[in-house]
Amino acid sequence: MLLDHLEEFRTLSGAEVQVRVLCQDKLELRLREQAAYWKQRGKQRAFREADANTAFHHAHATHRQTRNHIRVVEVDGQELWSHEDKTAAITSYFAGIMGASIATSWSFDVQALYSGRARASGALTAPFSEAEAAAAVRSMNRCSAPGPDGFGPSFYKAAWSTVEVQV
Known about the structure:
167 residues; 63% helix
């Protein structure tokens, strides 16, 4: 880009920096749009060909399953073919690399490290007010995934007057 070339010889002015940032933003947007276009076009082609040719659809699904399938696992020179053996070997391997739980011993007193400082965490440990809870619910994205209770932000926003006491 011309501005990159100019920057090699001199410092860009404020206006030139703004033009450069604007160009980069436009290019990034265009690339995202193009990627979305081709992704959607690929889906449409797959649907169109799958509807017209069931054999194509089945071949595509079979190929994907074959590609995502672990046929054999080799452990210490021994090949494992059964699902149960592969599961046991993989579980054992990852359990081994994750490490064993060893009790940690501290050689210092954490409380003594911060004894001279005022506690700034009072606001963090204080109970939530109703206004804070309502503000948190309002600021959540409606399309977010549900929480452990199975209810998402859209439910809490819609039924806030009913559930606010329990929250």
